[in-house]
From TrEMBL:
Its cofactor is Mg(2+). Converts adenosine 3'-phosphate 5'-phosphosulfate (PAPS) to adenosine 5'-phosphosulfate (APS) and 3'(2')-phosphoadenosine 5'-phosphate (PAP) to AMP. Mg(2+) binds at E69, D131, I133, D134, D295. It is an enzyme of class 3 (hydrolase). This is 3'(2'),5'-bisphosphate nucleotidase. The lineage of its organism: Eukaryota, Fungi, Dikarya, Ascomycota, Saccharomycotina. Belongs to the inositol monophosphatase superfamily. Its EC number is 3.1.3.7. One of its GO terms (biological process) is inositol phosphate metabolic process.
């Protein structure tokens, strides 16, 4: 058995159970959201998925800390909201994995679990980074979103698991979006993919909604690309999350002629890691925004294990051990290791010429 095999198993089961919850919500005719203090949306599915995953971690590893995106304050203040989420959690937890990942017993326990995601992070000990729904806006528009969980040990990501309910299991299995189209916007693509990586052991994909077995688990790799001109790059859907204009200039400096594939969430890391794209650019729009560790931790180890490299826009490794945010980094550049330095060069060219 490899290093972190128990952590990997627990993380997979937790992400699968949480993804069942998010998919059950997504199956409804209409989706609604609440607006958080930073103006971003959150839904019953974000709260429910965070509760399920943190309770699984506490069941298996009671001493571990968790940096989770959400907190329970809104549920404490609103009994109706709390009951809605509790019903979803109970339904999704009706599986045969209680001996491994436990089962929440009450709505109060559920809120406690959500609030346990309050770790300040840091570079010592075992800390999980959790984004219960990454790309909530994508979830709401029925595009791509991802349930993301990573284990950091002493500030370094060792395990990453990402559930993508709206991504096809195999590249080219369903009609992939044409270049320039928003991926997964139809919501009808595929039937879910579970991406898993343990440092030093490779990156893998398996079906999200059935048990991972040796026969349905496939190792994934970046495309063997040597010239950036043929590359496909992906970026956020929201122009407020990354600088689309700067990214277009970088792409053109690389000789890329294909329009970008726009996709919400860490599904971008997953797509490039399995060769369904080559480069993920995330140049900052604002000089004050600090990227959150839960938006990048799982994707970071996945890309590394698939033969890729992730740095910030200055070529620095992302430092996950400085707190809840990546405050020592600016921007994110992810690409196959073979072309990463070319991409970085183009970033410098474009950024320096615009200053
Ligand atoms: N200003 C700004 N700059 C950069 N990033 C920001 C910003 N504001 C929010 N966020 C975070 O973006 C997360 C979603 O990223 P995506 O790449 O999926 O964005 S997009 O929705 O496709 O545009 C999103 O994650 P979720 O909240 O989990 O959806 C946010 O953490
Ligand atoms: Mg996120
Ligand atoms: Mg989120
Ligand atoms: Mg959010």
């Amino acid at each position: 058995m490899g290093l972190f095999s128990v952590e990997k198993r627990i993380a997979q089961l937790a992400v699968q159970r949480a993804s069942r919850l998010t998919a059950a919500v997504a199956a409804r005719n209409s989706l609604s959201s609440i607006t958080k203090s930073d103006d971003s949306p959150v839904t019953v599915a974000d709260f429910g998925a965070q509760a399920i995953i943190i309770s699984a971690i506490r069941h298996a590893f009671p001493k571990d800390e968790v940096v989770g995106e959400e907190d329970g304050a809104k549920l404490r203040a609103d009994a109706g909201l709390r009951e809605n989420v509790w019903k979803l959690v109970q339904d999704a937890s009706n599986d045969s994995f209680a001996s491994e990942i436990g089962q929440l017993k009450s709505a109060d326990e559920m809120i406690d679990a959500i609030d346990h995601g309050n770790s300040e992070g840091g570079n010592s000990g075992r800390i999980w980074a959790l984004d219960p729904i990454d790309g909530t806006k994508g979830f709401l528009r029925r595009g791509q979103y991802a349930v993301c969980l990573a284990l950091m040990v002493d500030g370094k990501v060792q395990v990453g698991v990402i559930g993508c309910p709206n991504l096809p299991l195999q590249v080219g299995q369903s009609s992939a979006p044409a270049a320039g189209e928003v991926a997964g916007e139809s919501g009808s693509e595929g039937n879910g993919a579970l991406f898993t990586a343990v440092r030093g052991e490779g990156a893998f994909v398996s079906p999200l909604f059935s048990a991972a077995t040796e026969s349905n688990t496939k190792q994934i790799h970046f495309n063997a690309i040597t010239s950036t001109a043929n590359a496909t790059f992906c970026e956020s859907v929201e122009s407020g999350h990354s600088a689309h204009d700067t990214q277009a200039a970088i792409a053109s400096a690389l000789g890329i002629t294909k329009p970008p594939v726009r996709m919400d969430s860490q599904a971008k890391y997953c797509s490039i890691a399995r060769g369904d794209g080559d480069i993920y650019l995330r140049l900052p729009v604002s000089s004050t925004y600090q990227e959150k560790i839960w938006d990048h931790a799982a994707g970071n180890v996945l890309v590394h294990e698939a033969g890729g490299r992730v740095t910030d826009m200055f070529g620095k490794e992302l430092d996950f051990g400085v707190g809840r945010t990546l405050r020592d980094n600016k921007g994110v550049i992810a690409a196959s290791a073979a072309i990463h330095s070319d991409v970085l060069k183009a970033v410098h060219q474009v950024v320096n010429s615009s200053n």
